Each structure stands twice: as C-alpha cells, then as structure tokens.
Amino acid sequence: MNRKQDNKPRKNALILFFHKMGSPPWFYGLSGKLVPWLWAAFVVLAMCGLYLGLFRAPPDYLQGESFRIMYIHVPAAWMSMMIYGLMAVMGFIALVWRIRIAEILAMSSAPVGAAFTLAALISGALWGRPTWGAYWVWDARLTSELVLLFLYLGVLGLYNAFDEPRKAARAACLLALVGAVNLPIIHYSVQWWNTLHQGSSISVTGSSIHPSMLWPLLIMALATKFYYAANLLSRARLMLAQQDLRKGWIQKALVKPADNPLEGHSENE
Amino acid sequence: MTVQKDASLTGAFFALVRRDLLLAFRRRSELLFPVFFLMVVVSLFPLGVGPSPELLARIAPGVVWIAALLSVVISLDSVFRSDFEDGTLEQYIVSGQPLSLIALAKSLAHWLVTGLPLVLVSPLLALWMNLPSHAIGALVASLLLATPILSFVGAIGVGLTISLRRGGQLLSLLVFPLYVPVLIIATGGIMAAIDGLPYTPFLGLLLAGLITSVTLAPFAIATALKISLS
Fold first, then answer.
1. Are A232 and A114 within 8 A, CB to CB?
2. Contact yes or no for B180 and A192 at CB 8 A
3. From the CA of A120, how many Å to the nearest CA of chain B?
4. Which ipTM score applies to this complex?
5. What letter would DSSP give residue A54?
6. pLDDT one digit per residue (tens) for chain A, 269 residues
7. A189 at B interface, C-beta within 8 A
8. Ramachandran class of B87: left when φ > 0, alpha when ψ lies in -120 to 50, beta otherwise
9. Can you give the residue ranges of every domain in chain A?
C-alpha cells in the first residue's frame, strides 16, 4: 500500500482521500475513531438544544406550549429530506464508480432517513391535534413527508428482497436515484394540489421567529446532523464487518492486538 | 457505415415492437384483462359509495384515474417477465443493440397493449361515473398523454424486481409513490374541465412528463436490467 502511494507522489490530496475512503480497512479504522466523538457531540448538542427549547424558550403567544414540538418536528423533517438527497448522491457514486463503501453508506442512510421521516410524521400529527384540531390533515408538507416515507420504504424493501448484498445495494441505489429525480416533482405537485383543494391548513411557522425560539431550533438541527453521521457510520461499520466477515482485514481489526492475529484466524468463530 | 447502423437500430426497434404486439394478439383474451380490471374496479365505486349522480360526478376523475393506475401496475410485470423466464432478456443484452433502445421498444409495446385499450374504454367509464360530457375530452386526453408515463416509469420498477421471485407486491410499493405527480396533475386537469376552466396547461404538464420519461426512463430501465441480470 505504501509502495503504491510512493509511485504517484503528485496525487491530489482530495483524490487521495477519496481513494483511501474506498478501501474498507481504511474506512473501518477512520470511522471507528470518529464514531465516539460524533455520538458525544450529538448528546451534548441535543441536551443543550432540548433544555433551551423545552425550558428556556418562552411559550408561543398563539400556540402556547405546544409549539415546542417544533424542536423535534422541524429538524426531523429537514433531516428526512437531506438524507434522501445524500443517499441519492452516494447511490450515484456507487453506480457510476462502483465504490463499495458508497453502496454501504447509501444503504446505511436509508433506515436512518426513514426513521427521521417517521418521527417527522408522528410529531407532525401530534402537533396537528392542538393546532388544527385533527391528528391528520392533508397538508402539503405532511403529504410530501408521507410520500417520502413510501419512497424510503421502497428503497428498504428492495434492498432486503435480494439475497446478494451488493446486487441489492446497486438495485436500491438506482431506485433512490430515480426517486430523487422525482422528489422535486412530487413536492411541487403536492403543494399545488393542496392549494387547488383548499385545505383548512394554517401556516404554522410565522415569517419571523424570535431569537430565543430560533437558537434551540438551530442547535437541534445541528444535533440531528451529528446523530445522522454517528448512526450512519456505526451502521456502515457493522454492515461492512458482516459482509467481510471471512476476509483477513476484518478479522485482524476485530481481534484485539493482545491476541495473536495469525492464531486468531482459525478460532475466530 | 453510420447510415447502416442507424437502419439496424430502427430495424431492431420495430422488429421488437412488432414481435411483442404479435405475441399479445396471439393471446387475445389476455389482452382484455387490464380493460376488464379497470371496468370492474370503477363499477365497484357506485356500489360502495351509493349511486348519487352528484357524488359520482365529483369523484369520477379520481376513481377512473386510480383504477387506471391499478390496472397498469397489475399488468406491468408482463413487460419483461416472459422474456426473463425463457432467457430472451439475456439474448437482448448480448445482441449488441443498446439495451436502452430495447427497453424503449418493450415499454412502448406494453403501452400499446395495456395503456391504449384503457384510453379507448375511458369514455364509457365517464358515462358510468356521470362525468359531465364537456369533461370527457379532458379525461381521454389526460389518459392518452399520461398512461405511457406509467408504462415507462413502471418498467424501471419491473427491471429492478424481475429477478425476485415475489416481486409483484414490492413492485407496487416501488412505483406508486413515483406516480403521485401524474395522478395529481391528471385529475386536476379533469376537475378544471368539469368547472369549465381551461385544462390545456395540465395537458402541457403531462406532455412534459411524457417527453421526460420517454427520454430518460429507457436508460434507467437498461441499468436496472443489467443490475438484475448481473
């Protein structure tokens, strides 16, 4: 490995980084170092954000205390869309350059994104009860989230239907890509449909939010990004380890340095 | 040289469409399944919600369109199923012709066999559902422009699920979310026609969707087939 790098000393640092990221042992090692820090950053930020949002922010003059659901609902909705976009980008990389790590990252994103979508839908329904007087209103944003959940379920369902993991990942990546092309069309058509049918929807978020209400929201938005990164890398490491269980590098990585790695091969089961 | 290659491309394209149409017409009874399915589903609605003409007229665009969606999805599997099972699909891949061209021909043939009959039978359904007569044109036009989109986008899902033994239910989960814009725009156009408003903008949007899906979907179908057969 070292010799290979020495042959091309003028390689761009960024390209080198991507090439290294394509190597399973290197990815496994780096992500293993990052994961604890990402989880820690999430916990600290989420505690700050929830404390400020749930206890320090003043109640809304119109909605009272119920507006505090926003601190879960809005970051979850943002994440659900961002993760779908990232999943499609990684799916594109996986299909075009056939990088296995990109396949694994795309497929590890899908359950996290689906969970955020579900969280956004449930918190939206709970928020809808005091605000609109009903748990479910066919509001444009809720409907878009519902379709997004179906898209996520399609990707997950397709991935789990195949026996061979790499084929499954590539098929699901293509579906994610097709969905990403459709997503803006779905979003705008649903918005338009909503105005056509004149639902009883009220615009919830005012045009301006007071800073004492805005800061906790931004902190929570940052916290959910760290949650995604930590969860993504943990899942990707597990998926990689499961797929490569019979390969030498993972057995070396899983066996503690104190044990003899060469002995560990045969009795690692 | 290039002329000759072009000729072989169009030759392959029309040969494939002709073959699929011929196969379909050899089994005429199966040809009518999607139409019967559509008629049965639509006729269930008056039985389910009551025969009130005003109510039926109001829900007619949605009912006919949802029944058309279901009918297309039920028949989607036939785009590649028999070719996959007897190995013809692999022969297409090694034939040297671009797979996207083959996907285009197969999807077009699928629409001619299943989508076009739905368009032709739709005026009858409009009468059943008490759709105002000035909106029948919008219904037929929207079906004519948008059922090919369903065939082309649906074929991507078929390509992805063809190698699975129980791909049918999964297929519907994959393609229905992608059909949402088509349903919204098509029914919106018919509603506008019922209210006496101009509906050509809706048909324009459907035409845009048709052009986009016909030009882009064959590449996605080809990629999906290559993944499935790898």
1. no
2. no
3. 18
4. 0.89
5. I
6. 444 445 555 667 878 777 777 788 888 888 889 999 999 999 999 999 999 888 888 877 777 778 888 899 999 999 999 999 999 999 999 999 888 899 999 999 999 999 999 999 999 888 888 887 888 888 888 889 999 999 999 999 999 999 888 899 999 999 999 999 999 998 888 888 877 765 444 455 554 667 777 888 899 999 999 999 999 999 999 999 888 888 888 888 877 655 544 544 444 44
7. yes
8. left
9. 67-264
Confirm or reject contact between B61 and chain A (CB < 8 A). no
Give the list of residues 6+ apart from residue A259 with CB closer than 8 angstroms, or none.
none
Amino acid of residue A101: I
Chain A CB contacts of B170 under 8 Å are: 154, 157-158, 161
Q: Is A207 helix (H, G, I), strand (E, B) or coil?
A: coil
Residues 6+ apart with CB under 8 A from A200: A132, A137
Name the residue ranges covered by the structural domains of chain B.
2-229
3-state secondary structure of A64: strand
Cα–Cα distance measured from residue B23 to residue A98, given in angstroms and rounded to the nearest whole number? 38
